[in-house]
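subagent[fold] <- orchestrator: predict structure for attached chain, return tokens only, no commentary.
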Amino acid sequence: MNPLNPFAASPQVVTVALNPALDQTIEVAGIKLGEVNRALRMQVDVGGKAVNVASCLSDFGVSTAVTGQIGRDNAALFEELFQRKKIANHCHYLDGLTRINSKLVDTVSGDTTDLNMPGPELTPDSARDLLEQVLRRLDQLAGQVQWVVLSGSLPPGMPADAYAAITRKAQAAGGSVVLDTSGAPLRAALAAGPKIVKPNRHELAELVGRPLDTLEALIATGRELLVASPGPDWVVVSMGGDGALFLDREQALRALPARVNVSSTVGAGDAMVAGLVAARLEGLNLADTARLATAFAAAKLTRLGPHLPRPAEVRALAQQISVSPVG
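subagent[fold] -> orchestrator:
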């Protein structure tokens, strides 16, 4: 275990990074598949969804910690980010490399192609040890942390109910859980009753096993989650360029994205999760939460890597977000 850094001694938020990554972003003007492409530039950023969320929260001035795992052989970039952004490092160190993902950004079309690696292959013993380490860290932070963010994929070998176990532990200790994952881990963790769930529309369709091609279908399915037992308090469905849906048991709202100059779409959903948490810490209502969370996502689009502009710029952007009732 790495010695903890001195920052965020009393974090408001802990993000759980069970499968972090280094994101290698390569810009190409007009990608031609099957041919030699000349890259314009390349950038390597610390990433993985939970780390992205922590980074954006820190940029907004929220005291944040990260737990989970990173590989010893390329840990330096993670440690540098945590030190620079004053994020408390509660990660368990594994032998080997943290996975490296590649993002191909076509500057002509504006499209981003993701090539994501699966992560380290865990044995049953190492998976059990990692989960125990995370639960132990959450025990140590109980009473301080208001929100626990479970975000991203699980590494191969980690049981699909890992997020469910963490949700039960965190909420029994008085915290609230935001869940942003997909597939079997999403299905298992929903049964543990997280407070907020943020699938994208494709992940939601996969969860219920049917196409959700209309706004009405997405709203109806979100409401199904809300009335389930145990159901979340809020369901947020991100829809890319079509904005996002924000639902509680009384209302459904749609937030439309702001017009910004897009540098990269990578991590916009993670920024929205960070905005959700920041809004809940401020006690904002559903409409104002929709504005702030959508502004986080829009602000992230203007930056390469897991970074936001100054908080004042994000708040100004939130005033430009259009939010209206739907359904």
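orchestrator: received. Logging for downstream: The mean pLDDT is 94. The CA atoms of residues 28 and 39 lie 5 Å apart.
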